[in-house]
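Um, can you check?
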Amino acid sequence: MPTYRAPRRDIQFVMHEVLAMAEHYKTLPGGEDMDADMIDAILEEAAKFSENVLAPINASGDEQGCSWNDGVVTTPDGFKQAYSQYVDGGWPSLSLDPELGGQGLPESLGTMISEINGTANWSWSMYPGLSHGAMNTIAAHGTDEQKQHYLMPLVEGRWTGTMCLTESHCGTDLGMLRTKAEPQADGSYAISGTKIFISAGEHDMVDNIVHIVLARLPDAPHGTKGISLFIVPKFNLNEEGNATERNQVSCGSIEHKMGIHGNATCVMNFDQAKGYLIGPANKGLNCMFTFMNTARIGTAVQGLCSAEGAFQGALEYTKERLQMRSLTGPVAPNKAADPIIVHPDVRRMLLTAKAFAEGGRMLAYYLSQLNDTVKGSADSDKAKEAEVRLSLLTPIAKAFMTETGLESANLGMQCFGGHGYIREQGMEQIVRDARISTIYEGTTGIQALDLLGRKVLMTQGESLKAFTKEIHKFCKAEASNDAMAEFIKPLMAANKEWGDLTLKIGMAAMKDRNEVGAASVDYLMYSGYVTQAYLFARAAKVAQDALAGETSEADFYEAKLFTARFFYSRLLPRTQSYATTMLAGADTLQGLDQEHFMF
């Protein structure tokens, strides 16, 4: 089984050296006293918890899975105890408002912790992860009474939360949902309907579960404009906010899934359950995006976790597994064969996973830094600028990082050869767990339409220009630095091409709107590679500066430069294929009548 070790040094590199988080925190309320030592102390404690508590129950949780018995869901052995330790450690409240019982630390620290916990045990990490989305939604849109009753137990970790969106006939098209909300004399609503694919919808780790539910009022207009949002607790509350009788919400079954077996994916039945409106009537989807955006960034982190876990497992194995001799002659002449890490193709697979893990880490933490600014900056202009950037990059991060995370998981398993296909090695679990990440919280195709259609073309390219301007500014500052030329020249070219491709697609879409859908996924993947290329160039600059001075970590910084060069020489060129296919035209997809699809 792979032995997980939190990548402390690389996390420190991103937090301290690439993103200067300690300086960033000093601009935020609650972060004035944060420094590198405090960040490292939090990192160390989180690493110990993930390595010693979560990682040991990852494989067993996958093997055992969750069980359902007459509506009661039991989590795998050790999950409930691990959650109790998590709560006792104060982790759920780390980045929440002190007025709500939180510790008031910046939210980006939570991203760091989510990565560590998620790589150690993704199924377990989903239970507290979903709660953060529920908390953010209630905090942003709930009434004072709702905040008072529901937020404190969620912040403290005594309760958990879910998001109940889709139904069996809906998929992503939430405008088709049928769940009803009927007004009651006491100001509550009777919620009736069935929701599917509800992660952590029912379990035995807490006393109460707060469901955030989309439903329709009786007079609601059709489509997405007629959706409202409701709080529906598992146990109803009295006037003091204490749980009382069981609400009419139950788990009808749990799904039998390809992966994430340790997390209960539930069918939830609402039978005249008592619920409470959050936000304005018929504006529920707008409010739910608070939750969905939180979840999308969280899912992007899963892509990072998949890449990191695959790299760690494969690296350990390839250093030990003996097979064949190096093409340049024996590397371990005293052994029967050489370790397979000497072979170029194994290096290709390892370095691909390594690059996607490190690039994903920089992107996820960069997004979390932007999110800090949006929510906490006193400078309204900076907050607005960060919001535009975050809006653009969220669909890129969610889709690109999960697609490359899945690729990395498959490569990690491939490094084991036939042994990787065997359950005992633990690598096939990473593949199975990673597979869902490209699907939930909006598939890659949905994220791509959101990026190209809504975030770029509907803003006439202004949101993209704001980001490409940042990249251009960085390139201009390093243009005279000969040591950075190997990164700056291709980055400048890709950055310019990004804008040119956008213009061409936009012009084509004026004649045929299908051009947007036909180009969108290729456009998103292109965008992901350029975005990570920018972050790798920043990392390379940091590494070069460190090596130019006095450092006791020359090996670390040399490895950083090597990985950046690998990304630029082996991965960034993939953009040229995407540039070709995104301009191939909608006719290459739509030209065949559906009646002519045959087998």
In short: Residues 459-587 form one domain. DSSP finds 19 helices and eleven strands in the chain. Residues 540 and 561 are 5 Å apart (CA to CA).
